[in-house]
Structure formats: structure tokens, C-alpha cells
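Model: You mentioned two targets. I'll fold them one after the other.
Researcher: Yes, keep them separate.
Model: Target one:
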Amino acid sequence: MASIRKWLLSGLLVIVPLTITLLVLQWVLNFLDQTLLILPDSWQPDKLLGFHIPGFGVLLALGSLLLVGAVASNFVGRKLVGWWDNLLHRIPIVRSIYSGVKQVSDTLFSESGNAFRKAVLIQWPREGAWTIAFVTGVPGGDAANYLQGEYLSIYVPTTPNPTGGYFIMLKASDCIELKMSVDEALKYIVSMGVVVPHGVAPSAPKPVNPIQSS
């Protein structure tokens, strides 16, 4: 019985990650294939070729992103993007949604942004209890006027779903920078501490240097 239990657990450790990975990939392919709906009916690959090509929507989405990125990177493209932003910011309701999403995406994907660039160790949700969090920037707006000293904006993800969490502002001296990448920290969080980052030797705690706001 002990051997059977061992074999069963070993089989689960192999099959479960593989199955979930395949299901996620299938969902992504099916979702991106919906981009084919933007093509005219006569241009649909299924009709042109006479058979369905799974994942063709991925190529279309990737090509569209590359094309838009190439256009937006030149002088004329930047002017068009600026004109488009100004237009959307003039439309009620739309501007509130668009501006919020735009700020978040600019922060996350901008090469000059500081969001999720550092993994830190903080005491949360009480003193003596520690968790891993991510630096997202520095406090701004009116909130910064009430914080004395150097503070950091911190995102504390939940486990095992890191897309939910808490936004808090902590003193920089209360945040210990970890010698692990953001990816390693996310794996550590999602696995609930099971997948421990390798190759990181224990060292003395190091406070995080405050991020200079732009």
C-alpha cells in the first residue's frame, strides 16, 4: 500500500501540472483565435485554406501588436497616439475608465517604470508575521503630504492567487530587499512556500533604498 500511495502521488505530480498547462494553453489559443473575427468573412483562413489552423489567431494578434508598436514608435505614430488619447479623455465615462487602465499599463509595462521591480520582505498583517511583497513606487498625491520620511508603495499579493491583494504604504526602512527575482518571488507565493528559490544564500537584512519619484 505504501508503494501504491507513493506511485499515485508521483503520478499526480507529473500529470496535474501537465494537464493544467495544456488546459491553459488551449484556453489562450481559443481566446486569441477570436481575433480572427475582425477579418472580413471572405478573408477568414478557414475559407481561404479550406481547413482550420489552431492558433492562427495568435499569429494575427502578435502581428497586430508588432504593427501597432512599430507605428506608435515613430514620430507620426506618437502624434496619432497623443491625438487618440486626447479624444478618449474628452468622452465622459470612457475617460475615467481609459485613464485608469492607461496609468496602470504605463506603470507596469513601461521600461522606465518601477512597478514590480523589487521583491521585499515586510511584517504583515501584524508585527512579527512576515510575508513577501512587491515595490510598486512611491506614495503620491495628497497622501504623500501626510507621510513623514521615506515611504514606499507596496503591493501585498494573496496566496495562491496573486492577482488579488492589498496596497499599503510603508516606511522604506521597514522593507527588506530580497535577493530573488520577481518571478522567483511569485512562484514562492503561488506555491504557498513549497517552491523555494534556489541559489540564494542567507545574508544580513538589507533595507530597501527609496525610489526616486519622477
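Model: Target two:
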Amino acid sequence: MNLKRRQFLYLLGVSTGAFALDGCALAEKQPAPTPTSTTTPTATPTEISANPPGAIQLPPLPYAYEALEPHIDEATMRFHHDKHHATYVKNVNDALAKYPQLKGKSIESMLQNLNSIPEDIRGVIKNNGGGHLNHSMFWRIMKPSGGGEPNGAIASAIKDSFGSFDNFKKKFNEAGGKRFGSGWVWLIHGKDGKLEIITTANQDTPLSEGKYPIMGNDVWEHAYYLKYQNRRAEYLTAWWNVLNWDEINQRYAYAK
């Protein structure tokens, strides 16, 4: 599937950018953004059509830090968004400052053509750019009082691909639990149009493999350790209670 810049920006719902976070590197001087809404905004292709000029921006959370309680705690959301995601953005901006000619390119296009990126910043773009894109999607596919059974086209597609929603959840959680170390578990729209569950290491994005991420869960320890410690399975189970099926449906519709 030929995904153009406008498609990417809609799919990920943010202005693009991001970082090479090694382990738990943090942006110590990054100011904490203030969430301005308690609901998840919806982006359409006409609302977001190009990268804004200047530096890559950290998108604000579309809800308050504590809005996903008790399933994801406020402290984790502040640390995850204001430190980790902010660091991805800072590191990408620092890298791109060395090569002004790249500032007009989207992070998506750079991740799809990593061999065209100067070697000394290639790793930063891969890791931090992927981290920015992954997290920008992550915030939007969650919402307060979310979860429950999926609806619409994605519900039918899940049933067709996995037999039932319960079977899909089981397979998704198993894949996330078996992902060794840091990474993500994804539901992707593949090149053949079928839904698949895959995992990726670190901040690798399925987009680099030509696979569209419809939804994904972050299984880095920083996503859950403050509340769940080493109980990743418990976190994976709780996460279904905050899903924004409307946003996921839009991503699936656009992927098709």
C-alpha cells in the first residue's frame, strides 16, 4: 500500500518527528505540557495535511494525566509522556539540526528510506523517530471510560481474522507477553489487506516494513512498571479498559 505523507499524518494523528532513546534516557529540562481536553480529538485528512514548519513538536495528551485511572496511573502518564516521549522529540530535533535539508521531510518518509539518511544520525531517526510515531498513535487510541467490545468495521474484521474478539484479545496479550525485553505488540493491516498480530523490538515501527499499525500496545517497562512492577500480563489485561474504538475504527477505515 502506497502511503503518502497526508495518509501518514492522518493515520498517526500528529505532526511528525522523534528520537533514539537508549533504555530510560530522560529529557530532564523538558517542560511538562498541560492537557487541555478530556476527550480524544479526531483528525481528518483535511485537518492535518502537512508537517508544520520548524522543529518537531511534542503533541499534548488528548485527556488529563489521571483520566485513564485506575488502569493506567497518573504518575506513569506524566513520566511516559513528559519525559520519554519528550526525549524522542528532543533527540530528533537535535539530529536534524545538523542537516537542515532534512527538516522538510516527514519522519515517516525518513523511516521508510533510512538508507538515504546520513549515517551518523540514522540510528537516532530510526529509534527516536519510531518512538515519536508510536507514542503519538498510542495516546490517541486510548480514552477515558473506553474499552468494552469493539464496534463497527473493526469488530467485523477482528471476527473474520481471529474468530472472535475474545480469541483476538488472548492472542494479542500472548504476543505482548512473549515479547522479550522492550518493544510493542501490534494489530497491523498488512500488504495483502489482512489483519495480523506482530511484535517489534524497541521503538521499531511496522511502517518501516510496509505494514500499517491499526493499534498497538507499548510493552516497554516504563509504560507500566510504576503501577504493575513486573506484572506485564496484568497491565496487558487492564489496557483493554481504556481503548478508543472510534479512533481505531477510523485508522482501520483509512488503512483499507
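Researcher: Noted. Anything on target two?
Model: Strands lie at 183-189, 195-201, 212-218.
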